[in-house]
Fold this protein.
Amino acid sequence: MGTSYREYHPEQPFLLPPSPQQWLPENHLAYFIADTLGQIDLSPLHKRYQGDGRRNRPYHPVMLLTLLVYAYATGVFSSRKIARKIDEDVAFRVLAAGNRPDFRTINRFRAQHLEEFKKLFVEIVRLAKRTGLLKLGTVALDGTKVKANASKHKAMSYQRMEEEEARLEAEIQQLIERAEQIDAAEDELYGEARGDEIPAELSRRESRIEKIREAKAALEAEQAEADRAKGRRPDDERAASGERPQGGRSKYKREFGVPEPKAQCNFSDPESKIMKTGRGFEQCYNAQAAVEEGEQLIVAATLGANAADNGYLIELVDEIKNNTGRKPRRVLADAGYKGERNFEELEQRKIRGYVALGRESGQGGEASTKADGPATERMRKRLRDQRGRQRYRRRKALVEPAFGWVKQVLGFREFSMRGLEKARGEWNLVTAALNLRRMARMKVVPQAA
């Protein structure tokens, strides 16, 4: 007796069109994200499209946002891959609801709504609070280096820039002199000639030297800002105030606003910096996050071009208060965030800090020094207490899994956009998508405000 199979006729058309809601399981992540975004005020997305009188109707911004968030939540970050998924992946097709935006539309939408991604992240955090997921008893902070959309081989040091600038200036001068000699010789042979065409070699060198000068100016401006932050002033300002250097010589090794010879700038993304990672030195941004103890949701996120974590502690603490309406009772952080000023700020905000002072955080970290202030001594005493040690040990288990989920589960290891503000907007999109993915696993029912 022959085997009886179920019906299989792939060429058979449907008598009636099927409902897209039947294509995915009822509890699918795509539905959860669409339903959750439906409970959030997304009216700012529509402002860009109002009153412009365009004849061609744009794609609905909520549809594009939902596609983007679901794509990031499932590890798809390229606009080309997202557009391809709409054709090939059932979940993407359901969320697109018959629309087929191309990759340019998706990429343009992402670039135009960076501010809205920050608001989206905040709204998702507040939604988690309304559903009772956030307790804000203990929050752990940490940072991770995420590769910028730039190659470290496109970077050049300040010293090398000066050398290249001098070399290119000499070559340009030689080309100009040679061009003048050729013009003079041709005038003698052929009479009056135009002589206003720019030689290709000269044009290329002028373009390169212009980029080098722009990069030098950016480094010098950055160094001048850093010098002012340390209390230094330019020599002309000091002279105008009547200040004279002791012994007729400056106590500084370099002039105001002059970077160190090894200071680098990247031509692909000048705002990114060379940072040390687990894979060696890479062109990166420093992605920061604050993770709440209860359900390990990210309650604050920011991004910077400074490899040191120290300057982000108070910024993250203030972001937690802004996003949730409450300050945390306790903050856990590693030694990268230590500093007398940071400890004083935590005390002023009446937040109990557990911030390591060195590698041996369980014993209070490094030995006491004369440079330590009173707030640092109080932190050392707290970490040497048995209860303080127990609380600090929770830090690694709270915050480091979040970065593991970002890089291993989502697969986000490199920014798609260049520039600090664009990368910061993309980091908000990543953390918002991760929070939604976590909330979906908890089977949270979205609630309107």
Notes: Strands lie at 138-147, 155-157, 264-266, 273-277, 280-292, 298-304, 330-333, 352-355.
